[in-house]
Amino acid sequence: MADEEYISPRDTLERLVRLETKLCIKFEAMDKALVLARELATKQIDTAFVAMNTRLEGMNEFRHQLERQESQFLRKEDLARELAVIRELRISEIKSIKERQDKMEKMFYVGLGIVLTIQVVFHVFFAKGQ
Known about the structure:
The chain is mostly helical and about 130 residues long. About 95% of the residues lie in helices and about 0% in strands. The protein has a domain at about 1-75.
């Protein structure tokens, strides 16, 4: 049994060399896998960065469109002020129309009075003359 348990230094060295070779192969494979994973991650990050920039450009363009539209909107305060001015103009126009209507009404009654007076005068003079 002593022979079975005994491993010669040469066998031990050969085993260590084989183990080292296997480990080197595994480490090289792991290194390659890490390099590939790093390259893939870098490509994915670059792709995501491009996509994010594209989305941000779209968002900025949309924001600019909203700003352009907003510049054309009328604020409530401005609308209220403009409507107040328009309301005052309409009120003054209505007052002006009412004043003209009152003047025309007075002129009508004055004219009617003149016509009636002329009729009465003609009637009186023509009735006496006959």
